[in-house]
Amino acid sequence: MEQIEKSERASMNRRSMLRFGALAAGVAGFPAILRAQTKELVIGGAASHKPWMDSHVIPMFEKKYSCKILYEGTRSTINLEKMRAAKDKPMMSVIQMDDPVMIQAVEEKLIEKLPAAQIPNLSKLRASAIHMDGMWANYQAPWSGLAYNTKSLASGVPSWTTMWEPRMKGKVALPSLQNTDGPWALYMAAHLETGKPLKDAQYDFEAGFKKLRTLKSSLLTIYTNLPQSFNLLEQGEAWIHGTFSSYALLRKQAGAPVDLSAPKEGIFAMPSGICLVANAPNKDLATAYINEMLSAQLQAELTPLTYSLPTNLDAPSTVTLPAGVEVFAPDWGWFTKNRTMLVERWDREMAI
Amino acid sequence: MIAAMRRIDPLAWLAVPATAYLAFAFALPLGLLLVKSVWTADGFTLASYVKFFADPFSWRVLTNTLKIAFLVTLVTLLLGYPVAFALAMSRGWLQVMLLVAMILPLSIGAVVKAFSWQIVLRRDGVVNRFLEWTGLIDEPVRFLFTETGLVLGAANIFLPFMVLPIYSVVRLIDPRLSEAAATLGAGPVYGFLRITAILSLPGVVAGIAFVFSLSISMYVIPSLLIGDRYQLLATLTGRSFLFLRNETLGSTVAVILLIIAIAVVMVSSYLSNRLRSAR
Question: Do A209 and A247 fall within a single domain?
Fold first, then answer.
């Protein structure tokens, strides 16, 4: 009897051990199984794009391709830095960023040419939306003007000179030169100072800084984080806020007391680009994603969400550019070459 | 060698894991930073330091950093010193409540607190409303994105680091000393200044060292409360690495910041020792 009990105990111990072993193997192996089943695609993009990426693009793509998208919303220059840091073994596969930063990425060989065979929608874009022989393409084209708080400025911002009015003391928030829409204030200041057309004034940064120095009393802040700074406009702390349609009009649609003006001197084109990271992981999934972003169907769906013009010729647009004002597209090549010098100068000139 | 190792207190081995971790995760990166600031493609050079100190903008950044750190330390000391005494002298549930009120905010991140201060400092925020209610101002004053706003916000965030070291010293001061002074004819102010205040100085020195070191190296708080127009050494370091791609400048600024922080700690340590020996 005692022998049987001993044997049972031994057998139970063995069974318990086997059970425990199986459980441990299951627990240890589970993440690997998960990884094998779900592909992950890491996409870098603008922080301000996160709302419509989260609500629309990501759920659609994850469902269609049975994958998981990790969207890292930050500034284009930060995404560029991330690409540099992980050049040999990139984490991100696709980056959505602005044209001037794309030029830097191309020069540093951080991105590779978009493969036309895997991205058939490239052939359906307007020619001006494909850059440097297909290194990147624009998936949308927002426009940039001056956003304003509708409770504080019911009649909007008719002119860029409104920012210099005495009543605007401490009420203006402008983007830093680190941001893609940062140069607009500098270009417009040069235009107002010299009277030259924007296409010539953009190179006259001395005149621009001279005029901007007289704007310092109007400045509440110079921002690098758009969503965070835009709160100041919505709360009435700022009255005027430099920004673009794909963010300001989205906030207006959400019920915020803001609107976007197209001042008489002109507005700026802000093409949003998409690129494939060099040596990107999950390249098939990455090219499929880029193809989706360039498709007529998705662009037509995004247009009312982002208040941007589509770039696919087959995509109908419900958004139109403001009429009667110049839409200026700057020389990004010149700006990219001189960006560091301009930022250092900006830091000194605009400091408190 | 073996004999020398035997002479080491066995308890000292307990510090080995933490020392190894700090050496790898803290000392090594700092060493690399220092090397980066003096080593270029042409070899060893101090050119980056010469360039930094020759630039008037650098002096402005340095002055901003020291000025803000000094003001934040001063405000936390003025606010924190009486709080530390209240904490030390209270008993029972009141002391528990005060301690919780002091320690609980430490569990909230600096980013959240800085965002909260953005709301508090607005033109229609609590500070402006209170000042208008008291009649001190007729119309809202701008605090947001000003030095005042930054000092107020940072002082709030760093206040526990001033209060707790002072409290830990004050609670050990023997209350009979004040009683003895009183029986010998000392008035309350004289007794406080000549006995209690002097005995609390080691806590004050430690608090100043903590808050000053934290204030000169803060990055997120100034970014949120005063923005890019007011450059500090820490924000300039981040900017140099992340945006300007000027690693030499970033390393140089970081080393200068580190030297200031080490100097503060060493001076405060020296003062603490002096005060201890004077007692």
Answer: yes
- Does residue A278 sit in the same domain as residue A162? no
> Within a domain: residue A320?
no
Contacts of B123 in chain A (CB under 8 A): 236-237
A259 and A178 belong to one structural domain: yes
What is the ipTM score, two decimals?
0.78
Sign of CA dihedral B85, B86, B90, B95: negative
Whichever domain contains A112, its CATH number is 3.40.190.10
Q: Determine, yes or no, domain membership for A28.
A: no
Q: Tell me which of A174, A347, A349 to substitute to probe the interface with B (most B C-beta atoms closer than 10 Å).
A: A347
Contact criterion met (CB < 8 Å) for A351 and B226: no
Instruction: Assess A226–B contact: CB distance below 8 Å, yes or no.
Output: no
Q: Tell me the C-alpha to C-alpha distance, in Å, between residue A319 and each of A140, A181, A316, B211, B241.
A: 11, 20, 9, 53, 39
Residue B275 contacts residue B205 (beta carbons within 8 Å): yes
**Number of A:B CB contacts under 8 A?**
53
Q: With contact defined as beta carbons under 8 Å apart, do B271 and B205 qualify?
A: yes
Per-residue pLDDT of chain B (279 residues; tens, 9 = 90+): 677 767 778 888 899 999 999 999 989 998 998 998 998 888 889 999 999 999 999 999 999 999 999 999 999 999 999 999 999 999 899 999 999 988 888 888 888 888 888 889 998 899 999 999 999 999 888 999 999 999 999 999 999 999 999 999 999 998 888 889 888 888 888 988 888 888 999 999 999 999 999 999 999 899 889 988 899 999 999 888 887 878 889 999 999 999 998 898 888 888 877 776 765
Q: What is the pLDDT of residues A206-243, one digit of tens each?
A: 999 999 999 999 999 999 888 888 999 999 999 999 98
Domain extent for A57: 40-141+271-310
pLDDT above 90 covers a percentage of chain A that reads: 57
Residues from B in contact with A at Cβ < 8 Å: 57, 60, 122-124, 142, 144-147, 224, 226-231, 239, 242-245
Closest CA to B178 of B163, B193, B165: B193
User: Are A181 and A240 part of one and the same domain?
Assistant: yes
Closest by Cβ to A81, choosing from B123, B145, B242 = B242
Q: Which residues of A touch B224 (CB under 8 A)?
A: 228
Domain presence at residue A96: yes
A344 touches chain B (CB under 8 A): yes
pLDDT of residue B187: 87
Question: Taking the mean position of all CA atoms in its chain, how far away is CA B100?
Answer: 21
Residues A164, A250 within the same domain: yes
The verdict on pTM exceeding 0.80 is: no
Measured between CA atoms, the residue of chain A closest to residue B57 is A348
Query: Model confidence at A148, in pLDDT bands (50, 70, 90)?
Result: very high
Which of A107, A149, A177, A237 should be substituted to probe chain B, the one whose Cβ sees the most B Cβ atoms within 10 Å? A237
Give the count of domains, chain A: 2
Sequence spans of domains, chain B:
45-278
Q: Do A293 and A331 lie in a common domain?
A: no
Selection from A149, A153, A120 nearest residue A137 by Cα? A120
Residue of A nearest to B241 (CA): A81
Give the span between the Cα atoms of A242 and A90, in whole angstroms. 33
Does residue A3 form part of some domain? no
C-alpha distances in angstroms, A274 versus A44, A99, A122, A129, B267? 10, 9, 11, 10, 54
Class of the domain covering B45-278: mainly alpha
- For residue B145, list chain A residues with Cβ-Cβ distance below 8 A: 220-221, 352
Minimal Cα distance from B235: which residue of A?
A: A347
- Let me know whether A188 and A208 are in one domain: yes
